[in-house]
Design a protein that fits this description.
single chain, 633 residues, alpha+beta, Immunoglobulin-like, Glycosyltransferase, 2 domains, 9-stranded mixed β-sheet, 4-stranded antiparallel β-sheet
Length: 633
């Protein structure tokens, strides 16, 4: 499904082969067969491989290369493993009609390595590490947390490498507005300035949603749930970077919910203004966020409007109610021992929100406009909220636990296995895993609409859908990468396998989980990691204002370290080109498209500041990644 229209992009040159790899290629015999050999690109997980797990790389070849020799060389140039390519896994595009698997899973010794191919094809990989899972995935997990720190809004920013400054302090007394009317041509541009509904709200803080400066409960509820689950599962303290960031998101959600009046506020900021320019919205101006507080020329940037889900005390769109209840209930779980009073307060808020869920909705309330995030599912969110309420009540000894357990099971049965896989639009994997835990903790009572075994089976079915795609894909990708949010779905699949294994102990899914992380971190057709700062080739021209204006463009320093971009998208999404640079944009890349030669399978990846289609970071992408990396390390 499409993300917010504002998302644009950032580019990077392909990784250079190390000098050691070039020397090794000559020593391996590649020079003697160069005239007969076909050119190849060796794709690896550029971050590294768990020594005890699966280790796959790929040769992307310009011609048939069955029988080509590959060697795994350590940092001293010694051969750690060798083998030959087998049958091609299929064609990628006209220029690269063959893809070959290189499996070196037998190597378990920690160290730095690279692959060299010779004989029927020539090529060499960037360097990568082999080590423990914790050693390999700890940095991506930590960097994903740093991305959330960089996305902070309000006075409690963390300067970090982008030298962030306090911003949008006027959000502390933001005026509530009625929803604007949008033009029918694009569903984004407003017809005229919105009118005031009356009243103000303290909406300071939270996280920017993506490459712009809007803030949404729609995306924050998913992101904060991922951070809280990661903190819970790893035992992160409230004062740790992960624990503090999870709390930062929860604190803002607490502001967006007014329990006294039963009002949910869903958005801070106006996306696009009017076609005439009489009203300037967030997407119409390219600037650093701290500029807005003093922008007297553009009142909707200086004094940003807040929009609510509905009238005070009215029923709440069930997608919003389910996820927000889950967030508050997760807070109750995390503080059940250290601060029982705080935990009970969160449980009260969760129960109030959950009870107001509209279980007969029409079009779901997401963002203003709805087209930014056109979610259609909601039973999964109510199953999620009920599961977390049940777990929280169990921890606090609250007698309502069984009732919430039954409600969650009812919605889990209604959703079943007909949905998507884990991403912001489908939280069923989180719901099923924690509902199964709650059912087990309750002694697996009879009479529930779904059983523990059914929920485990539902998780396995989601994994199986990804495995079926991966088996047919040349690079073992389990997500659909010619559609939106390939990276979010890839990381969602990796997370789901970890949740499933944690429940069952079934290690048969481990190879699939590793393949998904490999794909995201470089073992793909484009030969790039889709996470800034991870590996040797990663996005340099992210479609976001913070990275574009505050970061370095010299290729030596990471921009928004830890940012995970959309990744490859359907080629048709680029039919209109990337568009013009907005006033104030720093042009990036300087020239060319280093990834253009690898467009294939109906999918394209462009690393350009204008490429919202493939190079824009966002909360939900990083939330899926953060959870996957913490659960894998």
């Amino acid at each position: 499904m499409p993300h917010e229209h504002s998302r644009r992009g950032l580019g990077m040159a392909a990784a250079a082969v190390t000098a050691a790899a070039v020397v090794a290629a000559l020593l391996s015999g590649g020079a003697g067969t160069a005239e007969a050999a076909t050119t190849g690109q060796v794709r690896v997980n550029q971050v590294g491989y768990d020594g005890s797990g699966t280790k796959e790389a790929f040769l992307l070849a310009k011609g048939a290369a069955s029988g080509a020799t590959w060697k795994l060389l350590d940092s001293h140039g010694a051969t750690a493993a060798t083998g030959r390519t087998g049958t091609s896994r299929g064609s990628w595009n006209a220029a690269y009609p063959a893809v070959y698997l290189i499996d070196f899973s037998a190597v378990q010794t920690s160290g730095t390595y690279h692959l060299v191919v010779s004989g029927a094809a020539t090529g060499a990989s960037p360097s990568f590490t082999i080590g423990s899972a914790q050693a390999v995935y700890a940095k991506p997990a930590t960097d994903a947390t740093a991305f959330f720190q960089a996305q902070r809004d309000g006075r409690n920013v963390i300067p970090g490498e982008l030298n962030r400054k306090p911003a949008h302090l006027n959000d502390a007394h933001a005026t509530v507005y009625n929803w604007p009317t949008f033009t029918s041509s694009d569903g984004d541009t407003i017809a005229k300035a919105p009118t005031k509904a009356g009243g103000t709200v303290d909406a300071e803080g939270g996280w920017f949603d993506a490459g712009d400066y809007l803030k949404f409960t729609e995306t924050t509820t998913y992101a904060d749930a991922a951070l809280q689950i990661a903190a819970r599962e790893t035992g992160a303290s409230p004062t740790s970077a992960l624990g503090a960031e999870a709390q930062h998101g929860l604190d803002w959600l607490d502001k967006m919910w007014d329990g006294d009046t039963g009002t949910l506020y869903i958005q801070v900021g106006l996306g696009s203004g009017t076609a005439s320019g009489s009203v300037v919205g967030d997407h119409d101006s390219w600037r650093l966020p701290q500029k807005d507080d003093a922008d007297t020329a553009n009142p909707f940037l200086r004094d940003r409007p807040v929009f609510r889900a509905g009238a005070p005390g009215s029923r709440i769109s069930p997608n919003q109610a389910g996820r927000l209840a889950a967030d508050f209930a997760l807070g109750a779980q995390r503080y059940a021992v250290s601060d029982p009073a705080k935990a009970k307060g969160y449980l009260t808020a969760a129960a109030q929100v959950y009870a107001l869920a509209d279980t007969h909705p029409g079009t779901l309330v997401t963002t203003v406009p709805h087209a930014y995030y056109p979610e259609t599912s909601w039973q999964d969110d109510l199953a999620f909220g009920g599961a977390e309420l049940a777990l929280a009540a169990q921890k606090l000894g609250d007698s309502r636990a069984d009732g919430w357990l039954k409600q969650s099971a009812t919605w889990a049965k209604a959703y079943g296995t007909t949905g998507d896989t884990l991403n912001m639009y489908d939280t069923s994997a989180l719901a099923y895993a924690d509902l199964a835990r709650a059912i087990k903790a309750a002694g697996q009572p009879a009479g529930l609409p779904v059983s523990y075994d059914t929920l485990v089976g539902n998780l396995k079915a989601q994994i199986a859908s990804g495995q079926a795609r991966a088996d047919k894909d040349p690079f073992h990708a389990g997500a659909v990468y010619n559609d939106f949010d390939a990276d979010s779905h890839t990381l969602g699949l990796a997370t789901t396998t970890r949740l499933y294994r944690g429940l069952t102990g079934d290690t048969s899914v481990d190879r699939f989980a590793v393949q998904q992380l490999d794909w995201l971190l470089g073992a793909n057709a484009w030969g790039t990691s889709f996470m800034v700062g991870e590996g040797s080739t990663y996005p340099q021209c992210t479609a976001g204002q913070l990275g574009n204006l505050a970061g370095s463009l010299d290729g030596k320093a990471p921009l928004e370290t830890g940012a995970i971009v959309n990744g490859p998208n359907g080629s048709s999404q680029f039919n209109g080109g990337l568009g013009d640079y907005l006033a104030g944009m720093r042009k990036c890349p300087a020239a060319g498209d280093p990834f253009g030669a690898f467009t294939g399978h109906g999918s394209r990846y462009v690393d350009d500041v204008r490429s919202w289609q493939s190079s824009e970071p966002a909360l939900d992408m990083d939330a899926s990644g953060l959870l996957a990396f913490y659960l894998s390390s």
